[in-house]
Amino acid sequence: MIDALRRVETPEGITLELKPAGPLPRALAWGLDFAIRAALYLTLGILASLFGRLGMGIFLVGLFLIEWFYPVIFEVLNQGQTPGKWAVGLRVLGMDGLPVTWSQAMVRSLLMTVDFLPVGYAAGIAAMLMGRHAQRLGDLAAGTMVVHGELRSRPRASSPARPLEAAAGTFALPLPLTAAEQRAVVAFAERLPSLAPLRAQELAEVLEPLHGLRGDEAVACLAGFAEGLRGLR
User: Where are the domains positioned within the chain?
Assistant: First the structure.
């Protein structure tokens, strides 16, 4: 049975609540990604036809690269989201709540074929329904899970906080947060002095849809949000 939430604590002591995504939203995301890949295959085929016999080799190499590395590149370089996952509001994370690594993404991609056995993604769906966190076989082998990125479905603030304003003191949140999300923001600020700069940026960018910033600006903005939340308590 699928758990409603998975709670994990990062090495910095920040608790994250992750909501596993079931078969239906994942199927929709896969369908969107398949449509994109099909368009790429068609474009590749048209271009390869211009090279005569050599074109067949070009097409096969391109087919291999797109099929196996399309999800890997997007999941690692785009915060765990292929275009299909982004559209549906899903993303891939490690079971520890950290961003997916190259090796994890490769294992997920390579075992996609196994998940399709014997037909129609049967093995993958069975694994998702039987497991606690809706993991397909590729997820189980890679130590990953697909979760709902709920903040990504909310509209981005029209005027995100500027880092100098956030660092100067309190700053009002542009969107309402749940109690758990508020605690996570405050915990981030409390742990900030002990975090390495790159790690602080990585954690702050998880909430990019909330503040619309990246890097040091995102860190400063979240610190300002935390001050505002402390003032409400």
Answer: 6-151, 163-232
